[in-house]
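We give the entry.
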Amino acid sequence: MLALAEALANQAPYPAPAGWRLNGRLTRRFAFESHDEDYGVELQYQDDGCVVRVGTESFHARASLAGNQLEAVLDGLRIKAVIVRHGARRALFENSERLSIDFIDPYAYTELGVHGETHLKAPMPGRVVALLAEIGAKVAKGSPLLILEAMKMEHTITAPGDGVVQDFYFAAGEQVNDGDELVDFAAE
């Protein structure tokens, strides 16, 4: 239910009927965490809703979201619920039941956006346009470090906190893949 609400709340501003794609059906994956346990949910769009897969189980679903009111039909069972979103926390209220879980947003920026202790990663494939800081330079939180061009847009990779730029792993003009380490950054 929470994955359906997340999909409806974060859909494109234009309709994509049945999730049609040139090379097949649209599939979206969502990750949630509760008490240090991860849960993955996969939605595969169909002509009449979507197939929801959780672990080895799957079922057919149709849903609509109006504000925080979710109405869904799961394998023929009609369910009405209230979804409350607060930061990463998602709470689902259905009848007298309550489920509270954290949504893992793969694109969210946090100070923990540093991989391990010191390495900043590429959020998507692209090309390094410019290096904006010098190696060894002390920088403040939010200072621009490099510009990455991806999907015809420029994205500025910034310092997640105060620290020192140790090294750059790519030069301007080089291509990077999703998840490649870009900057060796030492937080202070």
